[in-house]
Design a protein that fits this description.
The chain has 118 residues and is α/β, with parallel strands linked by helices. Helices cover 31% and strands 26% of the residues.
Length: 118
């Protein structure tokens, strides 16, 4: 049984949570990072096991970061030369190339593309 489990599939379904949580052991934590349909309102969970195993189920977007606070901090560090971001960019695109950027992403040719607005 896992101490920690990150549920990171592309399209998260409430019906999958119970299956994933069944892999988590006593005092374990499952972190749900998948993107779910905004209208989804239900999830299936074995409440007996959740309680008796003292498991935790958490949701996460951007890790534990707060984008309103952390992105300006990262940008400030970047401007000071303390954080390297340019090296993380796979490829740049013009606004006219946005469709190509998405195609490259879907084809696995580009992981961190950036659209340049001139």
């Amino acid at each position: 049984m896992a101490d920690r489990l990150a549920y990171t599939v592309g399209n998260g379904l409430g019906s999958d949570i119970e299956i994933a949580l069944s892999l988590v052991g006593k005092l374990g934590v499952m972190v749900f990072t998948a993107v779910a349909d905004a209208r989804a309102r239900d999830a299936k969970i074995d409440l007996f096991t959740l309680t008796h195993f003292q498991q935790q189920l958490r949701g996460a977007l951007f890790g534990a970061a707060n984008p309103r606070i952390d992105i300006p901090k990262i940008l400030d560090l970047y401007m000071k030369g303390e954080v390297k971001l340019d090296e993380l960019v796979t490829r740049t695109y013009t606004l006219d190339e946005v469709n190509q950027g998405y195609a490259d992403l879907m084809d696995g040719k580009n992981i961190r593309g950036v659209i340049l607005f001139d």
